[in-house]
Write a structure and sequence with these properties.
Blueprint lengths: L5 H15 L6 E3 L2 H4 L27 E4 L8 E4 L7 E7 L2 E4 L1 H4 L8 E7 L8 E6 L11 E8 L5 E5 L1 H4 L7 E7 L8 E6 L24 E5 L5 E3 L11 E8 L8 E7 L5 E5 L5 E3 L1 H4 L3 E2 L5 E4 L8 E4 L7 H7 L6 H9 L4 E2 L3 E4 L8 E2 L1 H4 L7 E7 L8 E6 L8 H10 L5 H6 L6 E2 L1 E5 L5 E3 L9 E2 L1 E7 L8 E6 L5 E5 L9 E8 L11 E5 L5 E5 L3 E2 L3 E2 L4 E6 L3 E8 L4 E9 L2 E6 L4 E2 L18 E3 L35 E4 L8 E4 L8 E5 L5 E5 L4 H4 L3 E7 L8 E6 L14 E5 L5 E4 L10 E7 L8 E6 L13 E6 L2 E4 L1 H4 L8 E8 L8 E9 L2 E5 L4 E3 L10 E2 L2 E5 L8 E5 L15 E6 L8 E9 L7 E5 L3 H7 L10 H4 L4 H4 ...
Parallel strand pairs: 18-21, 33-41
Antiparallel strand pairs: 1-32, 2-3, 3-4, 4-5, 6-7, 7-8, 8-9, 10-11, 11-12, 12-13, 14-15, 15-16, 16-17, 19-20, 20-22, 22-23, 24-25, 25-27, 26-29, 27-28, 30-31, 31-32, 33-38, 34-35, 34-39, 36-37, 39-40, 40-42, 43-75, 44-45, 45-46, 46-47, 48-49, 49-50, 50-51, 52-53, 53-54, 54-55, 56-57, 57-58, ...
Length: about 1100
């Protein structure tokens, strides 16, 4: 779309608002000449003060909404940078009066940023803490504490700066602040977010400063109760450096004490300070959040999906369109992972992160890609709020930066010619790109839909701080934005609250006692259908801003609520029942009563439930920790979508020593031995290595089959060799066969099988021809340096104890079927013969019918057009109809590609530069640009990554902007495309595959909680003994490519079968099935002591976890 001027937008808005009054969008902009709000955060650069000399010049200002004159109408404050602050009193009907000068809040000659509101001195009026930054003098950078002096004769609130008297005249280049009672003494303390902008090379790895001495250390001030504060930073443990931009307070672990989340820019990690309840905090982000935004801006905390668990959103600067992606990011290196571990940094990636809460002591699941909110460009303020009153909180995001210094072509230009140009000429060469703000509607299923244009928010601007408030008290939330070099945006919400579909409740808290705080109060609105909404009272939200101190609950079509429950910070509780909707209710603290914690229920306190499963690993003698050398696959093929060397360890079970007790084996990584775990009569295990010689330890087993090769009554062993860490044609890709002496001692044999040399992935066993001997299918993945070409797959027929490769005779097209990941034998047509079902990467679900002497591919199955990144397959009967269904694990929806049938991912590969290594290039659909927002297929890889794969790609383009136009047809010539490998993937969901009979299948996606990461394995259980098969799932892929980062959102999952083949998720806290690592394999072992089996789960470079039902 064409970028139009802001004045044109104003004229359009006037026309719509004043003349037609048509409510064509949810929000209508109210122009300044009607509202009276004309604040413009105008910033003028000079040769000596500009984006090149002061990188935070365009970080912008905040918005604070509060009723400063106590007339029950929310007023609006804007912090200014080069301009004065402004305070506008609400006159009603979207009319405001500028009282800034009279109120004494202009702060001339100071660069103000974040704003926090609170009645600190309990006089009934809101006070303001305004942060200062940027300017050179210490005096100019001193923060301001505007203490309310009451109303003057004109009814105007007046203020006096008393920061010095209160002891909170901080001058640490502050970006924000918030009042909260961290030690629960009934007094509001102050946290100040600092970001000293004199750091050198802030993206370079170095030792963290964690002793409180860093210039960029936040401050915590303790309220003494006598009108003064004391610096308690170090004694409280607030000692970790960070270039802070976002700040939120919330009780994240449900212990009744406020915790602190800080989002930090550049290399410095975000911080999650958990309150220790003794006046100190401990940063626990590493154990609670698996990866973070890299350039973290604003953040917000709320329960967006109404499950009672608080969620966290942090913003970054990843572009949405292909042009923005390809002109602002050059490439990514695995070195970042290595340096993270060397210097003790947590994983960070350049995109917005949506951390879905899973309950206390369960790590968050980062689902921003799945939710559709990961790419909003240079973003500042996120705010969760129910804008359409449907009962679910939507997400509003501001963005924009007047000088796009992230433009890589400008970076090259500046590096090459800056010495010859004046500062003004260099500034003129920096692109200016106005980008629309974003509005995301909650889709009620852990995701959001972009409705920016439909809601009237998608107007190009340079926007920073924002706040929501019901400015006209009509029952919906309006939206206010502080813009750079444009008037502030005032959006009126036009939701019709009288249509019985958009009902609401507005709840105000009144702390009548000077010792009763509102800050930290918790409120639950419960509906008659059993659902509820949960909020905490903290008004500093998003970025540099304070929202209206009213609880707003959209109710959808509910005309009544079952109850309103409030837990005040002093642990007093009150409850109202059977409340009519569409009204504002004021709750008085004096009406609350003291209660004991054990009488409170979730979400005021953690859920009280006995887990279904418990981990018993150490109890039964298993303490095995998987170890593996970190191989950097990307040194061989730079553009791999994921590692090929981090697939194990695999595990499987059987009675290895013939004592009648089931044992299990865990495959090894290269340099280690597989481990045997022998079970005794008490259900305990003894560990023993399979190999003691160094030569056999050099292999890596991708899969293992335990079967009776020679019908002598014991289990022999087939080892599938693989992992792409050996040179092409290495002998370490040779598969091995071991025979059992009957006592669990295994001997390598070479005369009972052909030479099988393939980088394998899986093995599946059955007696497919009913001759009394177990046969094998062996799946091949991809050879070293040849991704995505498939390696050999084969069928090994067991001829009286001798394995023979019969693939070419009975299933010749099976040999190079694709990059196989898993397979299972199953009689899909109930003819008494085991058919073969194969899944793999960039493959369809492929079914071979067993005709005893030949295998034929079943066509038109109903799912053979689903090309996925299939990872695992398990056979079961989900609907108890007597035939075989399947649970099939896929990549999941939490990915960067978002494939569909209409917008597939394409993969082109060939040795374009004839160096012996295949050059894979993936293409996915992205919006082309803001000017042309149509979806087209573009390279997934960034130019720097593509250049690292082969220099021929560097020669094709002379700028990043030119590369941003690259498509399959422009990147490759017809000649280059000849004889190339062409693969596609159009489906990413893990599914239930339902057998409809006669070779036909239908499919259903597993619940959304199963789509957050790749599903690497599953087993069936009937945990509630209702006769229906439930599912235990494990997954993740920590070896995913570096840009999108580790697929780590799964913590293990129990899916409950409803009896009709539909599944619902059981929360981890309830299931007790907790597997947070890079889980690779799962199997069941019969317990020799009782009827409750063991469920064995392996994790890459992590411990084995063994579970048993309680």
């Amino acid at each position: 779309m064409r970028i139009i001027s802001y004045s044109s937008i104003i004229l359009i808005a006037i026309s719509i608002f004043s003349c037609t009054k048509q409510k064509s969008t949810l929000f209508q902009m109210v122009p300044g000449n009607e509202s009276g709000i004309t604040f413009n955060n105008k910033i003028i650069e000079t040769d000596s003060f500009n984006i090149l000399t002061s990188e935070y010049i365009f970080n912008g200002g905040g918005v604070a909404v509060g009723d400063f004159n106590n007339d029950n109408l929310p007023d609006v404050f804007f912090s200014g940078n080069q301009v004065n602050n402004k305070l506008y009193l609400n006159q009603g009907d979207f009319k405001f009066k500028d009282v800034s000068k009279e109120a004494g809040i202009e702060a001339t000659n100071q660069w103000n940023t974040g704003v926090a509101l609170a009645d600190v001195n309990n006089d009934g009026f809101l006070d303001m803490y305004v942060c200062s930054a940027m300017l050179n003098s210490e005096e100019a950078k001193k923060n301001i504490f505007f203490v309310h002096q009451g109303l003057n004769e004109n009814g105007v609130p007046t203020f006096k700066n008393m920061a010095k008297e209160y002891g909170i005249e901080e001058s640490g280049n502050s970006m924000g602040a918030t009042f909260f009672d961290y030690n629960k003494d009934g007094l509001l303390d102050l946290y100040v977010l600092n970001n000293v902008d004199i750091h050198i090379l802030p993206t370079n790895y170095r030792k963290k400063i964690t002793d409180g001495t860093a210039l960029s250390n936040d401050k915590l001030y303790k309220n003494n109760g006598d009108g003064t504060f004391t610096d308690a930073t170090v004694e409280a443990g607030i000692t970790i450096e960070g270039f802070g931009l976002g700040l939120s307070i919330s009780d994240l672990n449900y212990d009744g004490w406020p915790d602190i989340y800080v989002s930090n820019d550049y290399l410095t990690n975000d911080l999650l300070y958990i309150n220790n309840q003794d006046g100190t905090f401990t940063n626990q982000i590493a154990s609670r959040i698996k990866h973070q935004s890299k350039f973290s801006m604003g953040n917000d905390i709320s329960d967006f999906n109404n499950d009672g668990y608080l969620d966290i959103v942090t913003l970054d600067m990843l572009g949405e369109t292909n042009r923005r992606l390809k002109t602002t990011l050059s490439g990514h290196k695995y070195t970042e992972y290595i340096l993270n571990e060397r210097f003790g940094y947590e994983y960070q990636h350049t995109r917005n992160m949506l951390q879905k809460g899973n309950g206390n002591n369960i790590p968050y699941s980062e689902i921003g890609l799945l939710a559709g909110v990961s790419k909003t460009d240079w973003s500042w303020s996120p705010l969760f709020a129910d804008m359409d009153n449907d009962g679910y909180q939507d997400l509003m995001i501001t963005n924009g930066f007047p000088r796009d210094i992230t433009d890589l072509d400008f970076g090259d230009f500046k590096f090459n010619v800056s010495r010859y140009l004046s500062p003004a000429q260099i500034l003129d060469s920096i692109p200016k790109i106005k980008i629309p703000n974003y509005a995301y509607k909650n889709n009620h299923n852990n995701g959001f839909t972009d409705v920016s244009n439909d809601w009237g928010i998608g107007i190009p601007s340079f926007s920073n701080g924002a706040a929501f408030a019901d400015l006209d008290n009509d029952g919906d939330l309006d939206y206010i934005i502080n813009n750079i070099n444009d008037e502030a945006s005032i959006f009126e919400n036009t939701t019709d609250t009288s249509d019985e579909k958009h009902n609401y409740l507005s709840i105000a808290l009144n702390n009548t006692s000077s010792k009763t705080l509102k800050d930290g109060a918790k409120i639950v609105v419960r509906l008659n259908d059993g659902t509820f909404q949960y909020k905490e009272y903290h008004t500093y939200r998003g970025y540099m801003s304070t929202v209206e101190d009213i609880f707003h609950f959209g109710l959808g079509d509910a005309t009544k609520v079952k109850s309103i429950e409030v837990l005040w910070p002093d642990n007093k509780y009150q409850k109202l029942t059977d409340i009519e909707s569409n009204q504002r209710i004021k709750l008085e603290a004096k009406n609350a009563k003291t209660v004991k914690n054990n009488s409170l229920v979730f979400p005021f306190v953690p859920k009280k439930e006995k887990p279904i499963f418990r981990e018993v690993s150490k109890d039964i003698g298993v303490t095995f920790l998987h170890e593996e050398k970190d191989i950097i696959d990307y040194n061989i093929q730079r553009t791999l979508p994921h590692k090929l060397t981090q697939n194990g360890p695999f595990t499987t079970a059987g009675d290895l020593n013939g004592d009648g007790h089931q044992d299990f084996i865990v495959a090894s990584s290269a340099g280690m031995s597989p481990q045997l775990f022998f079970q005794n009569a008490q259900g305990h295990f003894t560990q023993k290595p399979l190999f003691s010689d160094e030569e056999n330890k050099k292999y890596e087993e991708e899969s293992i089959a335990l079967f009776d090769l020679d019908n002598d009554g014991d289990l022999d062993m087939y080892l599938v060799s693989g992992s792409n860490e050996f040179e092409l044609d290495s002998n370490y890709y040779n598969h091995r066969l071991l025979t059992n002496d009957g006592d669990g001692n295994f001997m390598l044999t070479t005369d009972k099988m052909p030479l099988v040399k393939t980088s394998g992935s899986t093995v599946a066993i059955t007696d497919y021809d009913h001759d009394g001997y177990v046969d094998l299918f062996v799946g091949g993945k991809t050879p070293f340096s040849k991704f995505p070409n498939p390696d050999k797959s084969l069928i090994l027929k067991n001829e009286k104890g001798i394995l023979k490769d019969v693939t070419d005779n009975i299933a010749p097209d099976l040999r190079h079927i694709g990059m196989v990941t898993d397979a299972v034998w199953a009689d899909v047509d109930l003819d008494g013969n085991e058919d073969l079902v194969i899944v793999g990467e960039f493959m369809p679900i492929t079914i071979y019918k067993n005709n005893l002497t030949r295998f034929s591919k079943i066509e038109n199955t109903g799912v053979d057009s689903l090309f996925g990144w299939w990872e695992s397959i398990t056979k079961t009967d989900v609907d108890n109809d007597g035939d075989i269904d399947f649970i099939i694990g896929n990549l999941g929806m939490n990915n960067f590609y978002n494939p569909t049938t209409e917008r597939p991912v394409n993969l082109i590969a060939k040795d374009f530069d004839n160096n012996g290594t295949l050059d894979p290039v993936m293409f996915a659909y992205f919006k082309e640009s803001f000017e042309n927002p149509t979806y087209k297929s573009f390279p997934v890889n960034f130019w720097g990554d593509l250049n690292g794969q082969s220099p021929i790609f560097r020669a094709k383009y002379n700028s990043f902007k030119a590369y941003s136009r690259a498509t399959i047809t422009s990147l490759f010539s017809n000649e280059e495309l000849q004889n190339s490998t062409k693969l596609t993937a159009n489906y990413d969901k893990s599914i239930v595959l339902l057998n409809e009979g006669e070779g036909k299948f239908s499919h259903m996606p597993l619940p959304i909680d199963a789509q957050v990461a790749p599903v690497n394995g599953s087993i069936t259980v009937d945990f509630n003994e209702d006769g229906y098969n439930d599912i235990l799932l494990i997954g993740n892929n920590f070896g995913n490519e570096v840009f999108a980062g580790r697929n780590d959102a799964l913590n293990g999952l129990l899916l409950q079968n409803d009896g009709n083949g539909n599944f619902k998720s059981v929360s981890t806290s309830k299931s007790g099935f907790f597997v947070p690592g890079d889980a690779k394999s799962i199997t069941t072992v019969k317990n020799s002591k009782n009827a409750l089996p063991y469920y064995i789960v392996t994790q890459n470079r992590d411990s084995i976890r063994i579970f048993q039902k309680n």
